[in-house]
């Protein structure tokens, strides 16, 4: 299947300043692809280059198999975009803004826009300049979604939204994936990415440091185990088990990491009287920071 988004050594420099460097990635049809990194990592530069708002210094980008620069008009007809700094003429209402965008796209039926406004609790009768950041963001989301595009490119889409609307946003993009749309979601919100995305690309200082399947990445990660025994247990017994690392004790509790199968550890623990047991996996944030530390090293 043709990739929906594909970059090959995409580079954008601002004179001598860094933008993005040799960025190669592929976004598959029908997936939610997270583009993850802290502010200033190069996420917005990448998106603006994909949209032909910036021209690459070198390398290439293709969307739907089309050249991002030469075929930019045909590409934009098939996508919905929410920029990270969404703004509009402050004197017009949200409804007037949507009607204008709909006219440009040749869309006459705004019933989907109205349905989205109801879900996001967006008041389209108010002037955009009078809206809070979160309520402006709702209008931005609606204009990106209402025409049911094949590709959604969303840059920090939940900025300013309250937790309830963040939940609604996650539900909506899940429905978009279900209908066959592809989503490129740029974010520094690790919880959002963890809950929404199928795969994630991690960028650091303008360079791609990893592309990972979110579920597989978490499955490979170590578990954090904390065991409180009812009586003394030799720490060496647990330290000798396969996959056990970073063992330490505090008072009557033993803490350690386990990589790989956990069954041998559970069987060893079960030979003793256990007062409490807790097994957790690292958050995506912890995994992400481990990649960053590795990249620094």
UniProtKB/TrEMBL annotation:
<feature type="domain" description="ABC transporter">
    <location>
        <begin position="5"/>
        <end position="230"/>
    </location>
</feature>
<dbReference type="GO" id="GO:0005524">
    <property type="term" value="F:ATP binding"/>
</dbReference>
<dbReference type="InterPro" id="IPR003593">
    <property type="entry name" value="AAA+_ATPase"/>
</dbReference>
<dbReference type="GO" id="GO:0005886">
    <property type="term" value="C:plasma membrane"/>
</dbReference>
<keyword id="KW-0813">Transport</keyword>
<dbReference type="Pfam" id="PF00005">
    <property type="entry name" value="ABC_tran"/>
</dbReference>
<dbReference type="InterPro" id="IPR050763">
    <property type="entry name" value="ABC_transporter_ATP-binding"/>
</dbReference>
<dbReference type="InterPro" id="IPR027417">
    <property type="entry name" value="P-loop_NTPase"/>
</dbReference>
<dbReference type="GO" id="GO:0046677">
    <property type="term" value="P:response to antibiotic"/>
</dbReference>
<dbReference type="GO" id="GO:0016887">
    <property type="term" value="F:ATP hydrolysis activity"/>
</dbReference>
<keyword id="KW-0067">ATP-binding</keyword>
<keyword id="KW-0547">Nucleotide-binding</keyword>
<keyword id="KW-0046">Antibiotic resistance</keyword>
<comment type="similarity">
    <text>Belongs to the ABC transporter superfamily.</text>
</comment>
<protein>
    <submittedName>
        <fullName>ABC transporter ATP-binding protein</fullName>
    </submittedName>
</protein>
<dbReference type="InterPro" id="IPR003439">
    <property type="entry name" value="ABC_transporter-like_ATP-bd"/>
</dbReference>
